[in-house]
Design a protein that fits this description.
This protein is about 45% helix and about 5% strand. It has helices at about 1-50, 55-60; strands at about 80, 95.
Length: about 110
């Protein structure tokens, strides 16, 4: 009985730290995925003189191997695309997370 109490105490101490580290790791992956897609958008613009019509164009034109998943929503279909101010320059100027919630820095995921 004493052993179970000690194990329960240890788990109660370690579990919150583990969950917090998972959230920080997901946020780090989100930052990296956003950076990769934004760099691909910039390369597309530099090569073509306009932004792509859709995120999938970054894959078909080989700027990315695949559209990465948003680690918060665990889906590649939840990215929110931002159009450029001038519609003649394409349709995808920037990309944001479609995740609800706020990061550890206090900033909403959809504003990263």
């Amino acid at each position: 009985m004493v052993v179970l109490a000690i194990i329960a105490l240890l788990v109660s101490i370690v579990a919150p730290h583990y969950v917090g580290r998972i959230a920080r790791a997901e946020e780090a992956v989100l930052r990296e995925n956003l950076t990769l897609m934004r760099e691909a958008l910039d390369k597309h613009y530099a090569d073509a003189g306009r932004y792509p019509a859709a995120l999938e164009d970054l894959v078909t034109k080989r700027y990315l191997r695949s559209i990465p998943s948003d680690p918060i929503t665990q889906s590649s279909a939840t990215w929110v695309v931002i159009a450029p101010a001038d519609p003649q320059k394409g349709a995808v100027y920037d990309v944001r997370s479609g995740a609800k919630g706020t990061g550890a820095d206090g900033k909403p995921y959809d504003q990263w």
